[in-house]
Amino acid sequence: MSKRRVLVAAALMVPLLLGGCGTSSEKDGANGGDKVSGEKTSRTITHALGTLSVPTAPKSVIALDEVAGLTLVSFGIKPKAVYNASAQPRAQEILKAEGIEVRQVTVGTVPSLEKLAADAPDLLVGTGAAGPAGVGYKKLVTLAPTVVLPIEGTWRDIVTRTAGYFGQEETGKRQIAATETLLKKPAEANKAKQGERSLSLLGNSFGQNNFTMPPHVPISTLIAEAGFTRPEFQRREVKGYSVPLSSEFLPEQDAELIVIPKGAYYDPAALQKQPTFAQLKGKVVIPDADIWYGMSGFAFYGSAHDLNTLASGKGELASQSTVQKVWQTYLAETRK
Question: Is pTM, for the whole model, over 0.85?
Fold first, then answer.
């Protein structure tokens, strides 16, 4: 895999988004029988890269990327600092509003062990076996217990496993329920309208790579649960996280709504400038890629929020001006 593709995989927390390679297997979860109690100071978990003991009440937590930072805060765990390894501005805005220090680091990397050691962390948290935390895991775990959050599986499975790592199973259930409740609204709205509501999900990265997402990835399953159908091309099951699209295949991607997320590495304009894109007649919608391609419980909730907005034609998509409100609603619905 090329250096740039490794960087993209790490930065976006969706390895292989730019297509081409296979995926790794993530079979993980909290080990049974090691529940938190007043007498226990640690619990044993198993994640994609190993089994380890983690503190039940960590005092100095460092999040190695924004996805990990949002996940921790959603469980009521305030990290001492979050590194911006995944270059997600919406997540950074939320974290700063929560009073958390967001530190600079080269995208797709982890800080040096010397920098991390200065905070005397008792827990490090990162995202994805192919992300920076996964790549540097063997070194990181020598400094402090290091939890690598999952990115494979259904969105429900990802939330459930992640919650288990921190003894937050009940919160995880509430996060799933909140997203399910939101998804019912667009599903009912779409069902009530005559004819099928169709949605085409397209993307362009670095101004060069066109792609769509296969049916099994979280955003695709969220779209399906919201009652939207996808073009036949996008319903074909393939391995991996994305399906590369040559320009000649763009005419096959038409739908009532043409959704092209925009973000640090995602360039809708580059896709729209291609001559064959003009053959698509659907309404173009440009949501935030941090939400639609995010791998946190909040990103799933935010995607459901956007899908409800698209189905109802009411409200606003999650964006720089609205994401704080969506975040606060998410917390209100998922915390005790």
Answer: yes
